[in-house]
Amino acid sequence: MRRADGTGLPVLLNAVMRDDTGVIRFCLFAATDRREYERELLRARQRAERSEAEARELVRTLQRSFIPPALPDIPGLQVAGAFRPAGRGDVVGGDFYDMYETAGGWALALGDVCGKGVEAAVVTSLARYTLRAAPIREPSPSAVLSALNRTLLRERAGRFVTAVYGRLVPAGEHFRLTVSLAGHPHPLRAGGDTVGEIGRPGNVLGLLPRVRLTDVDVDLAPGDAVLFYTDGVVEARRGEELYGEDRLRLLLGASRAMGAAGIAEAVVNEAVAFQPGLPRDDIAVVVLKIPAGRATIEG
């Protein structure tokens, strides 16, 4: 309809046939308020969609900060990492990994902070920072993890952390890897015709003032591959069945001829494919691979 001044007037029309004569009775209602209400609903929906998009981008930004954009280029060694967030990736998880150069070699850290969301993200940032700073003054992987334990307790983080920390030093055609575990799954080493665990169990971090942690040394030879991973791999679930370490050992043994990147991708893909729907937990892996016939690197 139009008003007397020619401007449009939104209306609602309600019409019914009241009798057999064909007479139609109808009512007109001004719909100005309803139209404004619909416009406000549309604006609210657009604001919500922008907020959701901003929240998703914030989650992606936080998650990227826990995973380095690139791992170091180490002569004579292939290094690769892979990460798959839980669900649609719209909630910040606690999985992280890092690798960086230290005096005389390189350090590798991989861990899992209990829980998800902003609080877990704060603890994850604290853990990564501490693990990068501690090697300056701590002599061994177990000492570095102990330093993280003290920091978590001092800062009253309120969440426990599992972690594996390793130091890698070149030694001729080999690498010497020293590993310490804090409540974390054992790294797996594929060498020769076998796949075995590296390290000894240790306490989780952030709960007890004193933790039992052990350093274990292993020499990596040309052709060896080492897989570090978070529990999202072995705890991938199909109904009541877990993916489990046995499947992971078989996969690592079958894929050890691949490069580090191929192994990392195979592990993540198989863990994701094993469970119906979207992954329930974050998945993070780091792979070290010494190519067969590598040149000697002086330590």
From TrEMBL:
Keyword tags: Coiled coil, Hydrolase
Source organism superkingdom: Bacteria
Coiled-coil ranges per UniProt: 34-65
Pfam family, one: SpoIIE
InterPro entries, alphabetized: Bact_Sigma-Reg (IPR052016), PPM-type-like_dom_sf (IPR036457), PPM-type_phosphatase-like_dom (IPR001932)
SUPFAM superfamilies: PP2C-like
UniProt GO molecular function: phosphatase activity
PPM-type phosphatase domain segment(s): 74-290
Protein name: Sigma-B regulation protein RsbU (Phosphoserine phosphatase)
Organism: Microbispora rosea
Taxonomy of the source species: Bacteria, Bacillati, Actinomycetota, Actinomycetes, Streptosporangiales
